[in-house]
Please model this.
Amino acid sequence: MSFIDPPPRRRRARRSPLAALLAAALAVAGLAAAGPATARAASAAPASAAPASTAGSVTGLSQAGGTFTVSTSSGAKARVVVARADIFRLWLSPDGSFRDDPAGSDLAPTTDFGPVTAASTDAGPYYRITTGSVSIRVYKSPLRFAAYRADDSALLWEETKPTAWGGGHTTQYLARGADEQFYGTGLRLGEWALRGKTVPVAVDNKWRENDNASPAPFYMSTNDYGVMRNTWAPGSYAFDAPTALTHDENRFDAWYFTGGSLKSVLDAYTDVSGKPFMAPAWGFELGNADCFNASNPAYQGDHARLRHQTTPDVAGYAADARAADMPSGWFLPNDGYGCGYTAPLKSTVDALKAKGFQTGLWTSTGLGSIADEVGTAGSRGVKTDVAWIGGGYKYAFDGVQQAVDGIEKNSDARRYVWTVDGWAGTQRNAVVWTGDTNGTWDDMRWHVPALAGAGLSGINYASGDVDGIFGGSPKTYVRDLQWKAFTPAFMTMSGWGATNPSVGYQDKQPWRFAEPYQSINRKYLQLKMRLMPYLYTMSRVAHETGVPSTRAMVLEYPDDPVARGNLTSGQFMAGDSFLVAPVVSDTFVRDGIYLPAGSWTDYWTGRTYAGPGWLNGYRAPSTPSRCSSRAGRSCRCGRR
Model:
């Protein structure tokens, strides 16, 4: 296996289909038979309370540097702030004051890109604001906006009627192109192609299909533009005709990003909102979460759990992992309500470190002791939770920042934080995960598009607990672990589901399974370690460009009409060279694998397939036997 160095900053890497590897057998999952999901709207204003007030007609336009201010007959004002030729802010203030900016610099920490050239002209029915990349039209009667490419002929987006506000809601209405597709909105738990769907940009902490575990007020279009609403307010995006984009506030404030591709849009978006953080190397390894302080009277679980009585007991599990030759990198030994940890913490951290593990902590007691936990005891990771640091939006966002500061200001370590309830900008600070889900085939089915779709909002580290937090089985565990081994970050959580729910399934630690499942778990954990240089490089690319490691097919094949939509939502690209088609049903045969144009090599057998086309009847046993690498980007694996 050969690996590539990260590309220089802002260089667009071109993908070579000949170099692509088909890794379908690794995690091959049935292309979920369910049709398009029925999305539930969240936070959408009822028709009777639809916003009614608009800005009226334009009475003038003035310029100060890169800022253009539009006056209107109602007293409302709008501002177009050109930050860079390809980035601008559109801010509509109903009272004309521009004082109400609740997001401040939290969501857009970088907006100064140096001098910018922008000009305006009066074109009769509209004013035209031009940069080197975009032409913005300010229609006069009534006030509406549209954006074109610099040639003023290729439309990016256009309002069909004025943005309206009232009743605590503001809605923008956009024309929808004949074949225009939409992506984004954060870690949405379901399909990632959003045309025709109404998507909640809101937190409900139900963590079921079509909810949004870590919403982001961001979307992008196949017209190669993206938008981040600069707000903490929840909302709802209806990608219909017209497209209606609503947030629960009486203001409109958004950053617009234009480019020549979806990848360049992500690059611009994360230039403003922050590049994905670069995890420490151990953070790419499997994490293991459980309560090892069950004797604590405050613990709400089973106080009699064997080998889980006090926090130092975790060292015994670490020894088991090493004895079983199961690669994993860190433990979270206090994962349970009321669990806490046994003092002194440092001796446990040292015992784990001696076995090659780092220690993370769940914020079950808040973050008040993090300076000591990191600086003195040596812990290096934090898992935040809405129960301890606040539910959603700015509260959770600030809690994550406190955790980041607690790690980086009290050690020389990189940030490593896991969180639910993320928002735009969370990608620069934390792994987001799908919440309290179940170990079922159905949950696994919608996890595949959820994690790939999160990357379409610039999130590099999106995960879900291996085999969920509740229920589970040896078969679902093995299949879930297989495909998640191709994502940057993953974790197991024990102590929540039933103990020994089926033969050979003690809990959710991969080394506590009967055969053949234990060997399957070992094989894929070892495979991930062999792929570490590649996966680490892909995350470095994400850190520099905003293009994620786990990629929906459209990112690599934007011109392929099949790859643009949900027919490929059951598969993804792991970086630029592996196509992974997970098995998400109780079967050994995978149908519905889509191969874009090019020559594809089966990772396990070396057999080649020609795309574009569909691959059906692919044999996908839980595990092949011996696998070895060779020069080039192919690997042959024999079967016993």
